[in-house]
Amino acid sequence: MALSRVLAAGVGILALALPSAAHAGTVSGMGSVSNTYEGSDVDEQVAIRTEGAMTVFGSSAIGLGGPGCMQVDGDTASCPSAATTIVNTLAGNDTIDASGVAAGTSLQVDAGLGGDYITDGAGNDTINGGPGGDNWIAGGGSDVFNGGDGDDTADYSGRGNSVTILLNGQAASGEAGEADTVGADVEGASGGAGNDSIVGNNLGNRLSGGGGNDTITGGTGEDRVEGQEGDDRIDTRDGRYDSIDCGAGTDTLLADPGDGAANCEVAPDRDGDGTLNEQDCAPDDPAVHPGAGEIVGNAVDEDCAGGPQYLRVTAPLGYSTKGRGNSARFVRITLSEIRAGDAIEVRCTGGKRKGCPFSKKTQTGKAGKSKVNLLSLFKQRYLKLNAVVEIRVTRPNEIGRVQRLKVTRKGVVKSELLCLAVGATKPGKCS
Description:
Helices cover 0% and strands 39% of the residues. It is mostly beta strands.
């Protein structure tokens, strides 16, 4: 690991590192200009603070170089204060704690290989994560965190006030007026106890709200979002699979239909069509909602008006009969407005004892022939009392037309018009 430079600010700096047998490098003092700490390839812990001078407490032995630096003991060094401290870490999973550095001193950390744990100070610091999964705990000041390779996290979990965390490389994160820059190469973000706003990027993000009533917006990758405590609002609509745990509280989730969700109390508009789920007859289909344009003739109720809308077959039946006692025969029976492909079905119920020459006959409408004469089917036979003739005309995705004719006393034929719903086999009253 390496602690690189500190530009003088008139306030001393203490850098602390915990004991280890490996050599950690040197602290170089350049008077009021800069201080440098060079690390090693082992896991190290370094703490830095300003108390009249810069003191480095290392987990490894520290060698001194440059005017003004003093060897305190084998793992502690002290140099004149500076306005900028640069920490260069090499390989290893290092811990750098600069929370004791005052606002007058800026910290630059160039983390090397490994997963490093970095707490910056109160100044305007720059943290370059480098390869490995790094965790940055944001201190005061307007800081810059560049994650580098690996799964990196911007951690504001220790904050009590509301923070904004934008993983976009712009100076717009932190508390009001703080203007931290969280790089677009950072994958994770953790909010604190306030009402935080967290927005992901195009990487697979890990976003945690913490306490408070947070607003969390996932990015365009496959994200893992945890609302945790508070009444959170979570939006993961991006067309990719996301995993959401809303956590405690009364939470609101706006998600894609395929997202996995748990502990979410309210999902007002899951499909994003502008209609709350409670009023949406198809909450997972954005094309179906109240106010949508109804497409007549398909099986979908686009406008949630109580069912799909279908046209009705119009095929008027004209007929005349001749009575004899309690029987009657057809003199004329013709269908009109028949289209090519229409299914025509004629049924006669009662069997031979009622004079029916058939039980069922079918035919298909032909192009250029809109009228169909059915008279030949009945062979001039008299149909007896209570014989029933039913003529059905159906076509795809339309309500079928059914006309039922029944022979009554004195050879009177009574007619009843019925409808056959799409997909149904038994006719019913027309609505």
